[in-house]
Design brief:
heterodimer; A: about 250 residues; alpha/beta; Rossmann fold; 9-stranded mixed beta sheet; 5 helices; 11 strands; about 20% helix; B: about 80 residues; alpha+beta; Mth169, Chain: A; 3-stranded antiparallel beta sheet; elongated
């Protein structure tokens, strides 16, 4: 099992992500200018402030060369995990439904939260015991998940809500307490809490390790892809076409 | 052509920044101000105005959460005259 962790200019959580991945497999860094994902079994898009978060969080990173490769990898059913800024990048890349908005209250929130695993059959949660709550930290300013009401209904019906903040613990005003959401096929997940920061007993909770352990187990059990078919994020107003590097301004 | 793109949060989207500004105004003695929304303004020169919509949809705005409006600052061909 080999994880690839993407590093962009402005990433800051990639070392912790590597550390978490290495507890359950091998891991290497991918660079934002890479044009392929080097044959890894799973891609992690870590947290940080890619390209300075200019314009909108994740907007510039979504157009980087490596994201074209990640998009192809996801289309073929490969698992992609976006954490925090990585979640924002995947939304901007139209690989996930919805968008992240500034927290209600306009405060940068940095604390531990409890999340419920709302879907235990996702590639990212198969190692989670049913009913188990995970204690993981959040640290973000732009974490309020939003999608139009009709889209939220569809997301819920299809089981795309994978993590939900426990009652009373929603740190940012996310709609329906959504902490982590997948694409329709289930192979792309974004979440605001940081499992990679809670993957080693040394730092307190190691609950987050379950996410990486799930991926490793799932890849070993399935060979590493989900049948994607024609599924695509339903809300996208334009076909999620490949962007060329000339579109990147920063 | 030089254009100005005005980007604002879609109607119905909670705008905490606008709310914070609105709440700050009475402290300065400005009463009677409401409905504050904070957006973004981008000015740019474009060679092919036909593609401007695409530029806005794919990068300058996120159509899921933001509306945008394009204003022409110099009419096409004005530079040649």
């Amino acid at each position: 099992m080999r994880f690839g962790v993407v590093r962009f200019p402005g990433s800051c959580d990639e070392e912790d992500a590597l550390h978490a991945c290495r507890r359950f497999g091998e891991a290497e860094l991918l660079w934002h200018e890479d044009r392929d994902v080097r044959g890894v079994d799973a891609v992690v898009v870590p947290g940080g402030f890619t390209y300075g978060d200019y314009l909108r969080v994740g907007a510039i990173a979504a157009l980087s060369p490596v994201m074209a490769a990640v998009r192809d990898f996801a289309r073929e059913g490969g698992p992609v995990l976006g954490i925090c800024n990585g979640f924002q990048v995947l939304c901007e890349a139209r690989l996930l439904p919805g968008a992240l908005l500034p927290n209600v209250g306009l405060r940068f929130t940095c604390r531990e939260v409890e999340v419920e695993v709302a879907n235990v059959s996702s590639p990212f949660t198969v190692a989670c015991p049913p009913g188990r709550r995970l204690t993981v930290p959040v640290k973000h300013f732009t974490g309020r998940f939003h999608a139009p009401a009709r889209e939220l209904d569809a997301i819920e019906t299809r089981g795309q809500v994978v993590f939900r903040y426990a009652a009373g613990q929603n740190p940012n005003g996310s709609e329906r307490d959504i902490a982590g959401v997948s694409n329709e096929a289930g192979n792309v997940l974004g979440l605001m809490p940081h499992p990679e920061h809670a993957s080693d007993p040394l730092t307190g909770s190691s609950d987050g390790g379950l996410v990486f352990e799930s991926l490793a187990r799932w890849v070993e059990a399935t060979g590493g892809t989900v049948p994607v078919g024609s599924a695509s994020p339903g809300w996208s107003p334009t076909p999620a076409g490949r962007h060329t590097s000339s579109a990147v301004s920063g | 052509m030089r254009v100005r793109v005005l980007i604002r949060p879609k109607k119905g989207i909670l705008d905490p920044q606008g709310q914070a500004v609105e709440r700050a105004l009475p402290a300065l003695g400005f009463d009677g101000v409401s409905g504050v929304r904070v957006g973004r303004l981008v000015e740019l020169d474009v060679e092919d105005p036909e593609r401007l919509g695409e530029v806005c949809e794919k990068l300058l705005a996120n159509p899921l959460i933001e509306d945008y409006e394009i204003e022409e600052l110099t009419p096409a061909g004005a530079e040649a005259r």
